[in-house]
Design goal:
Elements: H1 4-27, H2 50-64, H3 69-89, H4 105-131, H5 138-161, H6 165-177, H7 187-207, H8 212-216, H9 223-241, H10 250-267, H11 273-284, H12 292-301, H13 311-317, H14 325-337, E1 344-349, E2 354-358, H15 368-376, E3 386-390, E4 398-399, H16 402-406, E5 416-419, H17 426-429, H18 435-447, H19 458-461, H20 475-478, E6 484-487, E7 492-494, E8 504-505, E9 530-538, H21 553-561, E10 570-576, E11 579-585, E12 593-599, H22 605-614, E13 629-635, H23 644-649, E14 653-657, E15 675-676, H24 684-693, H25 695-715, H26 718-735
Parallel strand pairs: 3-7, 4-6, 7-8, 9-12, 9-13, 13-14, 14-15
Antiparallel strand pairs: 1-2, 1-3, 5-6, 10-11
The structure holds 2-acetamido-2-deoxy-beta-D-glucopyranose (NAG).
Domain Glycosyl transferase CAP10: 454-739
Organism: Aspergillus coremiiformis
InterPro entries: CAP10, O-Glucosyltr/Glycosyltrsf_90
Length: 743
């Protein structure tokens, strides 16, 4: 593990060392390498020319780096560094021509070894200072050290009779030919790797001294990449032949049901004010807030497809009815005055329809004020003044104890503000789950040790109380990057909240940041999209301070999609004689997943390095590259994922995993507008296989991508967000009306 990062870096540049060595040989031809052993100079073979070696090296480097140009330039750096180290460390014996000293292996082996030992000790010293003491495993360190020494010994022996290029070419061949074909993203990549390894093997054979005939037996090594890639190819073929092709896949049922439910929901929306009024009273058992009729007219005027489905608002505001209006206002003011509250106080002025936000010590509000003003600007004169607190952090804030929900004589002194950043917060978050809820969830699991289940009910899928295992499955519950908990009935607006939390939800300003806005010019038609699942992003989601980063949601997802966990078994559905059954297999078709971290962050140095070594990190990717795949994954970061609307608006199909509730939950339907993915992701391999590799799956994928895209233009317009906020402000105005008694 220790030198894996370094290994990755240098191995990518190794192929380039070969042409450099050749140049060096040409400069010092009488002294260097094995050509000195024979007195008559060889005629220069085509393979031995600098430009052919250079081209071959270039091809291999680009193939290893998956044709990523930036990665290519980065890989040149270690080559340059090695050259400098070489020039600096090699003892200068005899005549020295220019920058590169002449190298005599036998004479310099001892002084060189000493310097290498010194260098290694220095590296260990620096490492211990930067990363803390990293415990070693003596046996494996010793074994790998001995193996390395032995390799170099043999290399030196061989190089005496030919050229030092044998060292780099052998090593490059070893690296490419043993690349695990199951992790490759495409057939093209596999093909290039096979070509590159055969090319390198050819170089090795050519450089080696000895009779051509016996050397030719070495071509047998070409079987290593050939056989492994063939095995992978056959495994993919085999997996595809067992697919469920008819419409009997469980996904089909979920889609049909969800579609029907959504159509019914749209149809039953109230058609006139009386119906909307009755619907409100029927649902919530209270009168709608003052101004509700004007809201209805506004929504109707702007063709809001949704009139009655605003349970998200009701669920958020109803706990506050138990406080008097004056009490609600007092708490807002007092909490904002608390220096450690980290909240913005925003004041909506009813006459001008403008919002002004202020913070005790911050000036940048992440465009919260701007976003409110943009969405509420058209509402002059229809609302009273309203004040509310806004949370600018990604993570949600509010936990309302049930005890408080029941009493009406609360004082604000009962409100607790605590900084729980970088600590496990699960126990706190689930403090008020009733023991009954916990009990049922726990008995379900052991009863059926292994069932492949798709998310059928999104609200129980995100319910922390029903899923005690989530405590060790999400960065937010394990080690939130920032978590400033507010315990008490405080009216705070957040962009997302966990099931047990009491934040009031509003549309995130991030959805309107330029980097997250959908631009059709960057999208491509379905037929031209890659038939795979795409995701790239950074390791946000939790702050890694110990080995628990393996349990964070983003890390678990990338680990699965990159097939990194040894001996992991994936679950698939099979159909035999009309009966569905489940099978477990170690096979995961890497061709269907184009998934990688592009940045390792939010971690202490030691755990950054561990993650860097563990994952196949891509140096950089175009932010719109997602739109070139048919399936696009979306997953929580520290809070809600800001890129979600871009994916929803696009011609690709979002597969969404989240623990957060959002303002849009009443209008966005799983299996109609997107595909939900569970927290444990057990169903993901089968789901991706079905949606990419069967005809019915592909048709469904495209349908849902289209439905999500067209619904986005009807139900997620700016005006729809305005309609939501308008209704929310009506409720907030009623809540904080000083003349309202506690209910
Ligand atoms: C909150 O806690 C985190 C982690 O312990 C710490 O880094 C941060 O400075 C704290 N913030 C404040 C304002 O105390």
């Amino acid at each position: 593990m220790r030198d894996e990062t370094l290994l990755k870096l240098t191995s990518a540049s190794q192929p380039l060392l070969t042409p450099f060595l050749l140049i060096a040989e040409r400069c010092d031809s009488p002294r260097m390498g094995g050509s000195s052993t024979s007195d008559t100079p060889h005629p220069i073979h085509l393979i031995d020319t600098v430009w052919v070696t250079g081209l071959a090296g270039l091809f291999v480097v680009l193939t290893l780096g998956d044709w990523d140009r930036r990665g290519f330039f980065l890989s040149i750096l270690p080559v340059a560094a090695l050259l400098i180290v070489y020039a600096a460390l090699t003892p200068r014996i005899g005549r020295s021509t220019g920058f590169l000293p002449i190298f005599d292996m036998e004479a310099s082996i001892l002084p060189l070894s000493r310097r290498v030992v010194c260098l290694l000790l220095m590296v260990i010293g620096v490492e211990t200072v930067v990363f803390g003491f990293v415990p070693m495993e003596p046996i494996s360190t010793l074994t790998s050290g001995l193996t390395k020494a032995l390799t170099w010994y043999c290399m030196a022996k061989i190089a005496r009779h030919c050229s030092w290029r044998i060292a780099t070419t052998t090593r490059v061949f070893a690296i490419i030919s043993t690349r695990n074909p199951f992790t490759l993203a495409s057939n093209t990549q596999a093909l290039f790797l096979v070509i590159a390894s055969i090319l390198t093997l050819g170089q090795v054979i050519h450089i080696l001294p000895g009779p051509t005939k016996s050397k030719s037996t070495l071509w047998a090594f070409a079987l290593v990449p050939l056989v492994s890639n063939l095995a992978n190819f056959l495994a993919i073929r085999n997996a595809q032949s067992l697919l469920i092709h008819s419409g009997e896949h469980p996904i089909e049922q979920l889609i049909q049901e969800a579609k029907l439910n959504f159509a019914r929901m749209l149809q039953r929306q109230s058609q006139d004010y009386t119906a909307a009024y009755e619907q409100y009273r029927h649902r919530y058992g209270v009168e709608p807030p003052p101004g509700f009729e004007a809201w209805y007219e506004f929504a109707k005027l702007h063709q809001s497809p949704i009139i009655d489905e605003f349970d998200v608002i009701y669920n958020a505001v109803s706990p506050f009815w138990k406080l008097s209006g004056q009490n609600v206002l007092d708490i807002i003011n007092d909490v904002h005055r608390a220096p450690q509250s980290e909240l913005w106080l925003c004041i909506f002025s009813g006459q001008q329809a403008t919002v002004q936000c202020s913070h005790a010590h911050r000036t940048f509000d992440r465009h919260i004020e701007l976003s409110f003003n943009r969405l509420l600007g058209a509402l002059g004169g229809v609302l009273p003044d309203v004040r509310f607190l806004v949370n600018h952090l990604d993570e949600p804030r509010v936990l309302i104890p049930p005890r408080m929900r029941r009493t009406d004589t609360l004082g604000h002194e009962q409100i607790n503000l605590t900084n729980l950043s970088r600590q496990p917060v699960w126990d706190k978050l689930t403090e008020f789950c009733s023991s009954q809820e916990r009990g049922t969830a726990q008995t379900i699991y052991p009863a059926e040790p292994f069932t492949l289940s798709f998310v059928a009910d999104i609200s129980s899928a995100i319910d922390l109380c029903q899923n005690p295992e989530y405590g060790a499955m999400h960065g937010l519950t394990l080690s939130p990057t920032s978590f400033r908990l507010v315990e008490g009935a405080v009216l705070i607006l957040s962009t997302g909240a966990l099931s047990t939390m009491g934040d009031i939800l509003y549309p995130s300003a991030a959805y309107n940041e330029s980097e997250f806005i959908y631009d059709e010019r960057n999208d491509v038609e379905w037929e031209r999209k890659h038939n795979n699942l795409y995701w790239a992003g950074s390791t946000t989601g939790g702050f890694a301070m110990d080995g628990m980063w393996r349990q964070y949601h983003r890390q678990r997802f990338v680990e699965l999609a990159q097939n990194l966990k040894p001996r992991r078994r994936y679950c698939y559905l099979r159909q035999q004689d009309g009966v569905l059954s489940q099978v477990r297999s170690s096979f995961l078709n890497g061709r269907l997943f184009d998934v990688a971290f592009t940045r390792i962050m939010q971690c202490e140095p030691k755990y950054c390095r561990e993650q860097d070594a563990y994952f196949n990190v891509k140096s950089w990717v175009d932010k719109d590259k997602a739109l070139r795949s048919r399936l696009v994954f979306d997953i929580d970061g520290n809070g809600i994922s800001g890129r979600y609307y871009k994916l929803l608006a696009s011609k690709s199909l979002p597969l969404k995993q989240t623990l957060f509730r959002e303002w849009h939950d009443d209008r966005l339907r799983p299996w109609v507008h997107y595909i939900p993915v569970s927290q444990d992701m057990e169903e993901l391999p089968e789901m991706v296989l079905y949606l990419t590799s069967t005809e019915s799956g592909q048709i469904r994928a495209r349908e849902i991508a289209d439905q999500g895209r067209s619904w986005f233009t009807q139900g997620f317009r700016d005006i729809d967000q305005t309609i939501y906020l308008y209704r929310l402000l009506l409720e907030l105005a009623r809540l904080q009306d000083p003349s309202r008694p506690a209910m």
